[in-house]
Write a structure and sequence with these properties.
The structure is a single chain. The protein is mainly α. The chain has a single domain, classed as Flagellar protein FliS (Four Helix Bundle (Hemerythrin (Met), subunit A), Up-down Bundle), CATH 1.20.120. The longest helix has 28 residues. The protein is globular and about 45 Å long. It starts with a helix and ends with a helix.
Length: about 130
């Protein structure tokens, strides 16, 4: 029973964090979640836990989709279009990593995500002024 209480507390804590977060913080949370899922998938591949790998990669693809859906192509112009194509590429690479059980492909995707996240973190002050 103590585990059930801890899980409920954790879920409530996440829901509170989400409701208190700015749009900029929500995207940051998606990037962090994506990096975490990819790292977990690498561990599952190393341990040959293919069920765990599939869960994490499915979650990672869902997060990439959420990032892709958050793009404002009208205001974002070429940057949003380029990110859209990059997210599509990343989705394909995650699928490929899952099929091949290749952690080096996941490392490539993590590197791309970190580069995008660094840029996103760099506009934090500007985003705060518009919120």
């Amino acid at each position: 029973m103590p585990q059930l209480g801890a899980k409920q507390y954790q879920k409530m804590n996440v829901q509170t964090s989400l409701s208190d977060a700015s749009p900029h913080q929500l995207i940051t949370m998606l990037f962090d979640g994506l990096i975490s899922r990819l790292a977990m998938a690498k561990g599952f591949i190393d341990r040959k836990d293919y069920e765990g790998k599939s869960r994490c990669l499915g979650s990672a693809i869902t997060i990439i989709g959420a990032l892709q859906n958050s793009l404002d192509k009208e205001q974002g112009g070429d940057i949003a279009e380029n990110l859209d194509r990059l997210y599509l590429y990343m989705t394909r690479r995650v699928f490929a990593a899952g099929v091949a059980n290749d952690v080096s492909i996941l490392d490539e995707v993590v590197s791309l995500v970190k580069t995008i996240k660094d840029g996103w973190d760099g506009i934090k002050e500007e985003a705060g002024q518009r919120s």
